[in-house]
Amino acid sequence: MPCPPLEILFLGTGTSHGVPMIGCDCEVCRSADPRNQRTRSSILIRADDLNVLVDTAPELRLQAVRERLDRVDAVLFTHDHADHLHGIDDLRAFCQKHQMLIPLHGESRTLQTICRRWPYMFQDHEFRLRHLNVARLTTRPVEGPFRIGELDIVPVPLLHGKEPILGYRIGNFAYLTDCSEIPESSIHLLRGLDTLVIDGLRPRPHLTHFSLGQACLAVARLRPRQAFLTHLTHNVDHAAVDAALPPGVRLAYDGLRILCP
Ligand SMILES: [Zn+2]
Ligand SMILES: [Zn+2]
Ligand SMILES: [Zn+2]
Q: Which tens digit of pLDDT belongs to each residue from 167-197?
């Protein structure tokens, strides 16, 4: 089925510490450029009336208020690290407003972690039955391509250090946060992209994330029409680094919206 046009909204583009970092007075952390202020990484994918959130960053409430987001139809989880999960309780606002159950898609391990850390949000938990004021969530383990409304979603296995995690492809768009390697067996899933969003962390190499240079090499191999780097640290000054990137590659920033035809 053809993919409807997508709007991608960057809710957050920061690494796990966020930028500014607690206790740091470096130039980027003190910068007045709003593009140097990064909440933890998450995006919203909009297609027609559907709002699909990728990850629930610790600042989900702030991100949703900033962007006047009032509905989330489904969440895709990439992995279970705190910077991608710990805003999950804020989903209750959407559940209450629309009296709905929100489906969470992700690998079984990730969903198991969520159920263990936040048991009260799931079916038949005693607390949930007694309190209406909680998120109401349901789990949908990802075992291969699946569909949400009109969207065909392809999970893309990645390596985050030694840990296997998921990126996602929808139509000609792919979101690959938190990765240090794209396994050869995933390359064919990333052919013919219009827009690629990929982890670019910082200038220096890191054990579990692509550096800016490694991310640019991955982009050169996959050849999307345009690419955006995300999950950035305070070692990245937006204006200086963005100006030095190769053609077709840009830094993402909180609040950036892009269209993917
Ligand atoms: Zn992360
Ligand atoms: Zn700093
Ligand atoms: Zn991570």
A: 999 999 999 999 999 999 999 999 999 999 9
Instruction: Write the CA distances from 113 to 47, 181, 204, 231, integer angstroms.
Output: 29, 24, 31, 22
CATH number where 46 lies: 3.60.15.10
Say if 28 falls within a structural domain: no
Taking a 5 Å cut-off on Cβ, the residues next to ion ligand 3 are 81, 178
Gap between the Cα atoms of 16 and 59, Å rounded: 11
Work out the end-to-end distance of the chain between its first and last CA atoms, rounded to an integer number of angstroms: 15
> Which ligand does the CA of 79 lie closest to?
3
Task: Using a CB cutoff of 5 Å, list residues around ligand 1, an ion.
Answer: 83, 178
Question: In total, how many domains does the chain have?
Answer: 1
Residue 29 lies in a domain: no
Residue 66 lies in a domain: yes
Ligand with an atom nearest the CA of residue 36: 2
CA of 53 to the centre of ligand 2 (A): 28
Q: The domain containing residue 114 runs over which residues?
A: 6-22+36-260
Strands 226-230 and 151-160: unpaired
Quick one: DSSP state of residue 34? Answer: G
The model carries a pTM of 0.97
Q: Tell me, yes or no, whether 31 lies in a domain.
A: no
- 124 Cβ contact list (under 8 Å, min separation 6): none
pLDDT tens, position by position, 63-97: 999 999 999 999 999 999 999 999 999 999 999 99
Token output for 115: 């159920």
